[in-house]
């Protein structure tokens, strides 16, 4: 769990630099660079989403059934994370990333990418 968490954190950090570089372009930001940046951000979101669900599910596997008791409060992490990940569905991001990687179609700005 720790290794996958570190990998997601490294990807998010890397995408932060990508976003900063795009931001610094200001009005010179090209459609291509915006699309590459949006795809990188979407990839980081998908990775963070996947890793976070794996880690919170894994918590209960490691700690056993008793850890699900509300007196410990671990269920809050799982419940809060599931609610958070439903807010911004990753399926749209996965589709846009696939279209970018496989077909070289620049993602169009919308509510999800």
Summary of the model, kept short:
This protein has 113 residues and is mostly helical.
What's the layout of helices and strands?
Blueprint: H1 2-25, H2 31-63, H3 74-87, H4 90-103
Provide an overview of this structure:
This protein has helices at 2-25, 31-63, 74-87, 90-103. The chain is mainly α. The chain has one domain (2-103): Butyryl-CoA Dehydrogenase, subunit A, domain 3, CATH 1.20.140. The longest helix has 33 residues, at 31-63. The mean pLDDT is 91.
What's the count of strands? 0
Number of contiguous helices: 4
Q: Name the CATH superfamily classification.
A: Butyryl-CoA Dehydrogenase, subunit A, domain 3
Largest sheet: none
Uncertain runs are: none
Q: What is the class in the CATH system?
A: Mainly Alpha
Number of domains: 1
Q: Mind telling me the C-alpha Rg?
A: 17 Å
Mean pLDDT: 91
Order of helices and strands: HHHH
Q: What is the fold-level CATH name, i.e. the topology? A: Butyryl-CoA Dehydrogenase, subunit A, domain 3
Distance between the termini: 27 Å
- What percentage of the residues does DSSP assign to strands (E)? under 5%
Helix content: over 70%
From the spread of the alpha carbons, the general shape counts as elongated
Structural class: mainly alpha
List the keywords.
Butyryl-CoA Dehydrogenase, subunit A, domain 3
